[in-house]
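Before relying on records like the one below, remember that each one covers exactly one chain. Contacts with other chains, cofactors or solvent are not represented anywhere in the record.
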Amino acid sequence: MTNREGERPPHWIADVCADEQSGLAGFAAGLIPDLDAVVFGMSTDWSPGPVEGRVNDLKALKRGMFGRAKPPLLRKGLLIVAASRRHRP
């Protein structure tokens, strides 16, 4: 996956599904409906890491303030967390 070899998943899926003793056959078969997305994801440099980090920040803030804060306070808290995590060159 680190080599961005997007052409390999279809062959890997076929090999795994053909092997009757493979424990990955169900997983491989589950990739078939989203094969275009899998190939694209393994072919590009783009990473969802920064977006996932923001989502994680939001979920942690919501858990910490559950039942005690209304949306305006949650928004302010999220903006403070986002500003503190902003990448500065």
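The chain is about 60% helix and 0% strand.
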